[in-house]
Amino acid sequence: MSRHYIEGFLEMLLTERGAAENTLSGYRRDLNDFESFAIRRGKDLSIVSAKDIQAYLKLLDDSGLMASTQARRLSAIRQLFSYLLGEDIRRDDPSLNIDSPRAGRRLPKYLTVAEVDSLLAAAEGDTPEKRRLLSLLHLLYATGLRASELVSLPYPALREQDRFLIVRGKGNKERLVPVNQTSKQALERYLEVRDVFCPDGEHSKWLYPSRGGQGFLTRQRLGQLLKPLAIEAGIDPAKVSPHVLRHAFASHLLANGADLRSLQKMLGHSDISTTQIYTHVLQERLKEIVTAHHPLA
């Protein structure tokens, strides 16, 4: 019966809130783990108590799981019980008065401008694979797209006269993202050899087609492609990922005078508090300005 509750909750997220597939997968994974714990205690989700949830959180903490991961799982549990309450499956919400695990918010990893330049230089080449990789790298760094947004771009995502990409992001929301001329040129060079990556004899509707089941390059594969490139560029491969390049896009824009509201729109953040994590860059700039220009510095 518990599994039926979880699937009903996920269906609500999809139909009423337009949740993305990656979001649904995350909720399913977290809630299935909690459900398995409850079953081991002989409980159905309709009768789980606050003590059961506290015992689950203690188990996560004892296993060494990060506080941020514990908090994410508790958030999923809270939303599930809110749904069960609204559907009259339960008369109470056992998660209501449980405190969320606290953790300091970590600053995002990001690359320096010089490191990004080294990656771009390492990606230069005339083979189809190099052309594709260079265009992927350019778009990641020039637009700040999420990996899942980039690999699932339709074909043609950008026509010669266009200056903006139309991106469908989280919650199925569309946004406009500007693309610079250098990145457009890298994309145009890739398009000349794009058919090499199409399934044999087929036309693909994706900008980055693949012979895999999804029909387009997966975000996991994109991450894998960046690792040997990092080594070639003389950078620790552990530092390089699509998400780190998204952070570099945001941090470098702020460091060069962009405002938070514009950055929020380009990143597709629904809440500006998410974007404010990048203000560590602004703080460093302000310290440098004071140090360099204040009479008492």
From TrEMBL:
Sequence ranges assigned to domain Core-binding (CB) in this UniProt record: 1-85
Top-rank taxon, per record: Bacteria
Signal peptide range in chain numbering: none
Keyword annotations: Cell cycle, Cell division, Chromosome partition, Cytoplasm, DNA integration, DNA recombination, DNA-binding
Record's subcellular location: Cytoplasm
Pfam families: Phage_int_SAM_1, Phage_integrase
Keyword Electron transport attributed: no
Residues annotated as domain Tyr recombinase: 106-291
Active site as annotated: R146, K170, H243, R246, H269, Y278 (o-(3'-phospho-dna)-tyrosine intermediate)
HAMAP family: Recomb_XerC_XerD (MF_01808), Recomb_XerD (MF_01807)
Cited function: Site-specific tyrosine recombinase, which acts by catalyzing the cutting and rejoining of the recombining DNA molecules. The XerC-XerD complex is essential to convert dimers of the bacterial chromosome into monomers to permit their segregation at cell division. It also contributes to the segregational stability of plasmids.
Family, as annotated: Belongs to the 'phage' integrase family. XerD subfamily.
Xref: PANTHER family: PHAGE INTEGRASE-RELATED (PTHR30349), TYROSINE RECOMBINASE XERD (PTHR30349:SF90)
Known partners and oligomeric status: Forms a cyclic heterotetrameric complex composed of two molecules of XerC and two molecules of XerD.
Protein name: Tyrosine recombinase XerD
Species the sequence originates in: Sneathiella sedimenti
